Amino acid sequence: MSKHVAAFGEVMMRLQVPGYELLSQASTLNYSFSGTGVNVTAALARFGHTGYLVSTLPANAVGDAAVSYLQKLGITQSFIRRDGTYVGMYFLENGFGARPSRVTYSNRLESSFNTSSEGTYDFHNMAKKIDVVHFCGITLAMNDSVRHHMKTFAKAVKENGGTVVFDCNYRPSLWGEDGYEKAKPHYEEMLHLADIVMMNEKDAMFVLGMKTEMEDRREQLMDLIPAVAKKYTISVIAGTHRSINGNNTHSLSGFIFKNQTFTFSKRLTFSVYDRIGAGDAYTSGIIHGEMEGFSPEKTVEFAAAAGMLAHTIVGDTPMSSESEILRTMTESVGDIER
Amino acid sequence: MSKHVAAFGEVMMRLQVPGYELLSQASTLNYSFSGTGVNVTAALARFGHTGYLVSTLPANAVGDAAVSYLQKLGITQSFIRRDGTYVGMYFLENGFGARPSRVTYSNRLESSFNTSSEGTYDFHNMAKKIDVVHFCGITLAMNDSVRHHMKTFAKAVKENGGTVVFDCNYRPSLWGEDGYEKAKPHYEEMLHLADIVMMNEKDAMFVLGMKTEMEDRREQLMDLIPAVAKKYTISVIAGTHRSINGNNTHSLSGFIFKNQTFTFSKRLTFSVYDRIGAGDAYTSGIIHGEMEGFSPEKTVEFAAAAGMLAHTIVGDTPMSSESEILRTMTESVGDIER
Amino acid sequence: MSKHVAAFGEVMMRLQVPGYELLSQASTLNYSFSGTGVNVTAALARFGHTGYLVSTLPANAVGDAAVSYLQKLGITQSFIRRDGTYVGMYFLENGFGARPSRVTYSNRLESSFNTSSEGTYDFHNMAKKIDVVHFCGITLAMNDSVRHHMKTFAKAVKENGGTVVFDCNYRPSLWGEDGYEKAKPHYEEMLHLADIVMMNEKDAMFVLGMKTEMEDRREQLMDLIPAVAKKYTISVIAGTHRSINGNNTHSLSGFIFKNQTFTFSKRLTFSVYDRIGAGDAYTSGIIHGEMEGFSPEKTVEFAAAAGMLAHTIVGDTPMSSESEILRTMTESVGDIER
Amino acid sequence: MSKHVAAFGEVMMRLQVPGYELLSQASTLNYSFSGTGVNVTAALARFGHTGYLVSTLPANAVGDAAVSYLQKLGITQSFIRRDGTYVGMYFLENGFGARPSRVTYSNRLESSFNTSSEGTYDFHNMAKKIDVVHFCGITLAMNDSVRHHMKTFAKAVKENGGTVVFDCNYRPSLWGEDGYEKAKPHYEEMLHLADIVMMNEKDAMFVLGMKTEMEDRREQLMDLIPAVAKKYTISVIAGTHRSINGNNTHSLSGFIFKNQTFTFSKRLTFSVYDRIGAGDAYTSGIIHGEMEGFSPEKTVEFAAAAGMLAHTIVGDTPMSSESEILRTMTESVGDIER
Amino acid sequence: MSKHVAAFGEVMMRLQVPGYELLSQASTLNYSFSGTGVNVTAALARFGHTGYLVSTLPANAVGDAAVSYLQKLGITQSFIRRDGTYVGMYFLENGFGARPSRVTYSNRLESSFNTSSEGTYDFHNMAKKIDVVHFCGITLAMNDSVRHHMKTFAKAVKENGGTVVFDCNYRPSLWGEDGYEKAKPHYEEMLHLADIVMMNEKDAMFVLGMKTEMEDRREQLMDLIPAVAKKYTISVIAGTHRSINGNNTHSLSGFIFKNQTFTFSKRLTFSVYDRIGAGDAYTSGIIHGEMEGFSPEKTVEFAAAAGMLAHTIVGDTPMSSESEILRTMTESVGDIER
Amino acid sequence: MSKHVAAFGEVMMRLQVPGYELLSQASTLNYSFSGTGVNVTAALARFGHTGYLVSTLPANAVGDAAVSYLQKLGITQSFIRRDGTYVGMYFLENGFGARPSRVTYSNRLESSFNTSSEGTYDFHNMAKKIDVVHFCGITLAMNDSVRHHMKTFAKAVKENGGTVVFDCNYRPSLWGEDGYEKAKPHYEEMLHLADIVMMNEKDAMFVLGMKTEMEDRREQLMDLIPAVAKKYTISVIAGTHRSINGNNTHSLSGFIFKNQTFTFSKRLTFSVYDRIGAGDAYTSGIIHGEMEGFSPEKTVEFAAAAGMLAHTIVGDTPMSSESEILRTMTESVGDIER
């Protein structure tokens, strides 16, 4: 059954050097617009839900281009404010083999989204229209004003009986020195508000400062996640373990912890075309499974397959339909579809 | 010794999304013109024969572009009629890893080729000028009028002492429900007319409804193909077994059955750049080997190498010369040629 | 005040050779999706209205791409059915100077839109949600089934108190031999249903078979249009006179006939980048002016400026905002805006 | 009636910077293959004749690309030898307004064509198959060996009753210092062999050293051309007067002198997209008119219109059909053809 | 005689939509790096001088790309500091005819250049190595810190006997409300330091608040400029009058005031391909003329021709050599150079 | 410590078909400028040294483009002469899997570099300014005049106390029949002049005609290289062993022989994007290690890592900084850098 899902987050302009040249070799860039909130709502819109983005974009040519792009992705734009002057940007140079991809951010702190003052969003009315809201740790890292928006919105949704999703997504470069210390109180506040949380054992250990005696990743996970769920009264915790192989393939296995029980997906190994944003595809799969009432087994396999397919898609934003993901869960690699 | 070879078949416009974007992401398409008959005659023209295409194209800008493209491939266009209004088209989105390639056809049933009425081709005179003619099962699936053309032309060539090649090439989507049943009488008619047939055990089982007790593909093949050759009095039957591996490689082994004897090629495993049309390269290798009087061993290795190289070439149509194929048969993967 | 506007019409795929090459010279195409209904609703959406397209597109990759493209243009897609198999297409080769542009259609008669059977659209409910509906003569030329849809929808809107717009847009190639004769009864039926009609004296003379003694275009116009308005009880008739100059410029003057009075725009002369769809920009300007209650003077100047700007925009579909059009109406050609 | 026309000349690779960048700004080039002989035979093939190019190209990837390109243009390649190592090349940077286009040649003197030794072409047998042969002054400027080929071929054609066309086309940079003096004897030899000559009064004055008292171009022409025709017993002399206007347009008027009578075309003024090779389109129009038995009036208008259209076509080589040229002769600039 | 010329200014990244699409239509951008200082030093380096840019760029991939680009232009990069985090950017959408070009700035105030703290440049040592230094009003508009750099550097050069050039270049959007008032004291300080000033009567009236009774532009110029020269003891004042014509052409006439005498260039009218940065080409022509000791007549004609050619060049930065400019001063528009 | 390094060698224009099409399929080329000397000096400039190229380029548009390109790479161009007419060129078609890459040279023997007469370079003064000079066996293969330049320059540098590097780089196609015999005396002369030599056991066996009883490559190397070092009094000999694997990966291990001791790098296996020029990256690593006083272990690992990274970079010329290479030496393949 189709739901109304919102995400609160920044829209970034992605400026990608085509092919494998460096920025100092090429002369053209491909551009698109993305962000964790964009990726999650676009994926859910493709699954048949109504996906709202709650964000701010400038009323100029760059902001217009961003809105057009979001519309193309199927995102409903009625909760997007047009204000401020800049869009955050990042440059992407594709790696090849032994040479890793490289991301260079342009100034995002002065963006329309990050300079929106308090009271500018009508969270009260938005909360009435939506069933689920999604937040992530990247947004939480921005500044006090943005954090205030997040928490206000989360509370409003909760008060209206909606579901709050929080993706921990800790980025060290955004929090700076003593980052874990700075981040912890904000993370705890969000965890208390959240019903569904995306994280794994590393977030528990580093951001929340929890301890475990285990050494194996999965054992650490199974030791810590139930404690997190209990402490912050979280219904569902889900996440992935990723490993990067030498031959341009990644391996991914997903988990979901719900009703005191862990369910793990198969470990998928696959070639990677575009890695950025693939985590958001996994998140969208978990949210979709929960909204549709899938079994935990189906939810975690669906999310893992959605994540895998997102690595084969150009751009940050997942593009696969529910039926394409379901087919990937059951079939082996096939010949051309014709 | 250079021969005159004709193929009867439709010219399709291939509209391919560049790179790995989906049609709903991109804004440009690469176009080219192909078809089984185009691919086979172009390959044979590159081997030094005169390759005629017998087809119909509209007398408009799209038809002009098709003719120019066929000329570029070295195809002799004097047997191409200009009539009707449309060219059949298909869209191709390249797959990557776990995401398969996807072909979407536009309306081909209204094409110039498929709406040519009886009596429009002068098969009688064409038959006098050619040594070999090639037909395929895709054309046979079109409509009664096209099937009538095929059979008329095949008989005319046979009466003039020419060689008839028929590639079974059964496409389920083209025959629709109860397809095997509908197709069988037409296939049988073509097999009776054919001297060289491209097929494998699946065609024997599914299209011709033959039975075997064997379970292994090769054993099925060795059980059924001699029976087919006998029943329809076919001199040469050739084909391939293909398997698709997870890591973007395919494996291919070819066979030829001639003088009651099977000859198999080495099993080749190779990276795939563009899979469409590679089967036609194998066919062109078999025809060339037969026309040049190669030993069955050389013919089947040549055809398999031609097929392998066609997977490394952009577009549907094989582009390798005889000497390039012969070199591939003997050398290991090399450094740059300079 | 923002209105709800729908258009009923086909979505065509435009396949354009980039630059000035011919289809037989190039190897890439730019693609986009357009159509009179697309152009008009997209333009009105950009002016702040809600623009619905009522159409049918196939549930395949080409249909998905079309829907994404329409969403990017800001069109609301909730009235678009997904059914059938094909999208109508046309190829465009850009002319230069003495060499005219050339359009080659692919088969549109088998398109999803043109093969939709009766009863498939829920016109009754759509009519309740919209203030204005737009139809055009191109759609009227398709087939009986499409014409039946048009008339049913027009009546439903009229019954709900909405405004019906009809753009005569007669295309000789679509009606074939004795076209005017075939077209006339259908045009008359639409004119009786319409409140706002886009046409000029040529439509009156050729399609409606009306006579005038005048020889000058404007005199013919002023003689015939009031008679049309009276006969079919049409509130507003608007249209343009275009002349094509040798130096790659066109001249355009618009008129509106309302309350028994003609109002003419300035005659605008301007360089042309992309002529297709510019007439729809003029239509959108007239509709906007009428919906906003502009004076006839402002409406016709606004429509003419919108039409002029559309000639400077890449693609069929107008992209200018209301403020950009208003600025063009008052300012002379300026230096860079920075 | 369709004729067999050959041209003897070099195939050059054209490497063009796309758009308006300089070679020191850009990083991609568009390439094509052309040459006076290529342009003339391709144009005549498009008019329905069989066009042979007599030339030499290396048996490597560049030579293969050239042959494919010529085939695409409709040129019959059976008289092209494959020998030597290099293809002559030139770089083209498009000018804009006040900045002229710039051509930079790479080494053409070492090309396959220019290093072909005597006796390599079977002119004797070629001459039997052709009705008309075309030569030009650029080829004449190369070296003694090439000149020997030219004259041998011209004589062979003449002996077989064929028509010899010679385009004077004097290029100062190719003949170097004292160029007129060096060139004159070779030009005279070709003029004695020729039936149809492309030239104007400048060739008569500078290459042939003839004198006139007239000062106006047309008067000089009318004074000198009859003398040339008489002295060298030439049946038809044709050529153009071109003037370059400031606003990116050129003006062109053609003449033909036949049976002691001058016929002039209208003076055409038109926008220029690609000027190179347009003179060859004029030549092809004259040859076509003469072969088809057009009146001098029709021939010269046809040639001028062919020349004008060639300025609107991408690349050196004319692409217009006979019917497109005839339509241009009668119609004014039109709207889109659809 | 070759001089050492420095410019102090920001490097901007130009992100241009190719062709005539809007940012909300396209998906690729062409990028380059420019700025008034970049344009002037690159032009002078092309004339044979050593051109230093004094600026700051971040030590990341974007900064590396900028440095590579400046090196390609021939700029000596030894005075470029690598510090800070961002490069200022602007987006450019090309206008066409009635639709003006549009520039959208991204955040430049946080750029490496604009956040360089005092004492970071070693102006003392730089001043010893250079003969001429160039500053402009855009830089002056940035912030106090940048203004302090400018004035410190200007004084250092002056003390070392070098020449100070100041281009007034007032941009209203950069100074904001009451801009003229804020700007005036800074402009006056720079004018007192400058030897060569680029300006016209508008700068005198609006920035310096001077009054004139004249109404005609040239009369205003001739009234005010001598007063400015006298008041601020400036040796040379030069500038242009530009008018923008409807047909995509501009007209430009240059002046130089030196030794109490005005010299004017011819009024040039020309087609415009890329207008941005063309003013810097004019400036570079004036500086070159002064450094080479050209007569005022030659200097002003050279500068005007340099300016005109810069309008025909892709990108902000002039690319013409001295000989190309001199040729343009004497020749009419020519045919292809080959 | 930053050094002054020069290389003497030809600049070649690389004309590469984009993607995987053949030259006979495509219509665009990417171009760049490279050569062994270009690659080595550009790599060393990126490591912080001053890199001079000693070469000759024509004073035309192609030469200008080459100079701009070299400047972009960070090469100091003050030792580049502008003379002659042509730049050597090569066409590159990318291989895929079983189909090898193919290089087709255009005429390089007539290039500006290869036709420079004696006495044109001021080697005497150049030698005073540089610490190290690099030569290679490709240049040695050209002609007597070029060889004379090489030896003269090597002697001049040696007399000034500089270091001479010689890369054996024997190309059979350049020396023709009996190539080893022709080459040997010139190689011996260069080896006598060299301090650092790039070679492996094959050069010793084939060019120098040395014998070994060993059969294993490494044993042959360890047998022959010390003898070479001794015979020609060479301080440092370094080189690689490469093997090409079926799955589009190469394996590389480097060695350095210095102070009578062999040091070997780890054997690196990696995916290959662009193989051309990667050997020059290895050379640049050896030179940098020697200039910086790295231990042999660090030098050979640094050179091998530099070589590996160069296979992942678009174009012939290495683009990695010292810090990127050092990081690759220590880290495993990572996720995106952001």
Automatic annotation (TrEMBL), chains A, B, C, D, E, F:
<dbReference type="Pfam" id="PF00294">
    <property type="entry name" value="PfkB"/>
</dbReference>
<dbReference type="InterPro" id="IPR029056">
    <property type="entry name" value="Ribokinase-like"/>
</dbReference>
<dbReference type="InterPro" id="IPR052700">
    <property type="entry name" value="Carb_kinase_PfkB-like"/>
</dbReference>
<keyword id="KW-0808">Transferase</keyword>
<keyword id="KW-0418">Kinase</keyword>
<comment type="similarity">
    <text>Belongs to the carbohydrate kinase PfkB family.</text>
</comment>
<dbReference type="GO" id="GO:0016301">
    <property type="term" value="F:kinase activity"/>
</dbReference>
<feature type="domain" description="Carbohydrate kinase PfkB">
    <location>
        <begin position="3"/>
        <end position="317"/>
    </location>
</feature>
<dbReference type="InterPro" id="IPR011611">
    <property type="entry name" value="PfkB_dom"/>
</dbReference>
<protein>
    <submittedName>
        <fullName>Sugar kinase</fullName>
    </submittedName>
</protein>
